[in-house]
Write a structure and sequence with these properties.
This protein has 155 residues and is α/β, with parallel strands linked by helices. It has helices spanning 2-10, 18-23, 40-48, 60-69, 83-91, 110-119, 131-154; strands at residues 31-35, 53-57, 74-78, 101-105, 123-126. It has a five-stranded parallel β-sheet with strand order 2-1-3-4-5, sandwiched between helices.
Length: 155
């Protein structure tokens, strides 16, 4: 009986794909602000996950202005495109205090990684990377933030 009970407890439904987890539990399609000098990342992300809105900027000033106009659920900032400026500019704003921020770079050294985390980044990914890996990171961050938001709202 114990073995039968243990096997039933361990049997779980297969975990949803990263693409499904990215939108799971969202009341509307996730909105992603992508600051990168290369538009290919935003296009690839939009193609990989068709049920999200990806807004691309190559300039940090324009990205910050857009972020003031409308909320985003996830922020992707390339260090070389002014990502540190955008990270500093948005992390202190109440609207973006809890928004997941992923820093991206093709020149990832220890100083950049440390600076990103000190300024409030949630993840740091070195280029090149597979788009599926980025989607998996994004899905995990959004799941975590949704769970934390439910806790904050219950308090």
């Amino acid at each position: 009986i114990a073995a039968s009970l243990a096997s039933k407890q361990c049997a779980r439904a297969p975990r949803a794909s990263a693409e499904e987890r990215l939108v799971e539990g969202a009341t509307s399609p996730p909105r992603i602000l992508c600051l990168d000098t290369d538009r290919n990342l935003a296009d690839a992300l939009g193609s990989e996950v068709g049920r999200c809105v990806v807004v691309h900027y190559a300039d940090s000033k324009a990205a910050l202005e857009r972020a003031d106009l409308e909320p985003f659920d996830l922020l992707l900032f390339d260090c070389e495109a002014g990502g540190f400026q955008a990270l500093e500019g948005l992390r202190g704003r109440p609207r973006y205090r809890h928004t997941p921020i992923v820093m991206l770079t093709a020149v990832g050294d220890d100083e950049q990684v440390e600076k990103a985390f000190v300024l409030g980044a949630d993840e740091f990914l070195a280029k090149p990377f597979e788009i599926g890996g980025l989607v998996a990171h994004a899905a995990g961050l959004l799941e975590r933030e949704r769970a934390l938001a439910r806790v904050r709202n219950a308090l």
